[in-house]
Amino acid sequence: MVKVTEVADGIYHIEGEAKTPDTRDYMVSYLVRGQRAALIETGPTNHGPLIEDGLRQLKLDLKELAYIIPTHIHIDHGGGAGWWARKLPDVKIVLHPLGVPHMIDPTRLNASTKMAFGDSFEARYGAIQPVPPGQVHTVSDGESLSLGGRDLQVFFTPGHAPHHISLMDSRTKGLFSGEALGIPMEGSEIPFPACAPPAFDMEQYIATAERLRRLGPSVIFYSHDGVGRDVSRLIDLVEFHTRAYGAIIEGAVKGGESPEQMGNRLKDYVFKTTGKITDYSPEMAVSGFALYFKRKAEKK
Known about the structure:
The protein has a domain at 2-172: 4-Layer Sandwich (Metallo-beta-lactamase, Chain A). It is built from 10 helices and 15 strands. The protein is α/β, with parallel strands linked by helices.
């Protein structure tokens, strides 16, 4: 089942579940419509048909799609870009310069994804397919992409990943933040940091949040869970919780604690913060922050 909701003028939230015999994966993409259209976030390869179903609900002629824009090349955001490129040979795949070589030849990207998700990741998500070089649009920081009647301005937003971008819609002043402003915890609407290894950088993450605050967005279109309208408060929260996570993990690393112990500390923190979430999986955050502090120590 794919659900499509208009969340702002000409901006549609497309959500659903990709199912395999053993798993269910939640998906979110956004369609932005002007005279032409842009799809923001593809999810992995096997989400392509689901998104296509959402576009059919909108009665969109796929020839209207000018741009496919993953905010970064992690599998849950850009893994399906090659699938769309093959389906629509005239569409442009918009990428940060650092992401371009890995999407043209995703050999290393598939290998690292297998390390993160296991040998069965292709059955669950579909392999990341290459994007033909001629379909790549390599963006620069501050560049505007015209859709006719509205523009999407691109901002480089490192911290979660060095190849991360966010986009500001000129018509609504809505911000497509990817994971640059955290992920609202399901059932709480509180954004906690998105800190995936291996390249998470806490200092850059907080600096990016401040940069995005200065843009004055009217609304945040999160890539994992919904729409945030109390923008200043939400940015305050993600910065606060990022620093809190950092203090917890830095102290635990110095104390020689195991990943399991660190994870229990984060789970306790999330429960105390939300008052209700007990099923939080901390492994990604522990790994992301621990590697960040290890790199930081090695530089001294």
